[in-house]
């Protein structure tokens, strides 16, 4: 057990209320505060922003992302380094 993580969904549970980076299948990225998720990895982000060309951001606000469109989810603080 590392950092209280025993199962894959523990990573998402620890990220609730924090900013995450989400890579989508359509080659887009979203950054926002993780509010909720389910066993299908459907997620809800608050203050979501779409990242285009690694720089430009378009504010989207409260957003639901369907789990089957997600490639990975990472704590945004790690992804920015």
How does this structure look, described?
- The longest helix has 8 residues, at about 10-15.
- It is globular, with a radius of gyration of 12 Å.
- It is mainly beta.
- It has a single domain, classed as SH3 type barrels.
- A five-stranded antiparallel sheet has the order 4-3-2-1-5.
- The model has no long low-confidence stretch (mean pLDDT about 90).
- The protein contains two helices and five strands, in the order H-E-E-E-E-E-H.
Write the layout of secondary structure elements.
Layout lengths: L7 H8 L3 E6 L4 E9 L5 E10 L3 E10 L4 E6 H4 L2
Antiparallel strand pairs: 1-2, 1-5, 2-3, 3-4
Q: Flag low-confidence runs.
A: none
Mean pLDDT: 88
Beta strand count: 5
| Number of structural domains | 1
* Overall outline: globular
> How much helix is in the residues?
10-25%
Radius of gyration: 12 Å
Class of secondary structure makeup? mainly beta
Reported for the largest beta sheet, the result is: 5 strands, antiparallel
- What is the CATH topology classification name? SH3 type barrels
- Level-2 CATH architecture: Roll
Helices, by number, come to: 2
Question: SSE order, as H and E?
Answer: HEEEEEH
- Strand ordering within the main sheet: 4-3-2-1-5
Bin the strand percentage.
Answer: over 45%
CATH class: Mainly Beta
The rounded distance between the terminal residues' Cα atoms is: 25 Å
């Amino acid at each position: 057990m590392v950092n209280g993580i025993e199962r894959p969904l523990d990573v998402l549970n620890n990220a609730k209320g924090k900013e995450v980076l989400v890579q989508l299948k359509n080659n887009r990225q979203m950054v926002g505060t993780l509010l909720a998720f389910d066993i299908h990895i459907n997620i809800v982000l608050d203050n979501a922003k779409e990242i285009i060309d690694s720089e430009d951001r378009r504010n989207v606000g409260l957003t639901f992302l369907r789990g089957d469109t997600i490639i990975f989810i990472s704590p945004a603080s790690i992804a920015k380094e």
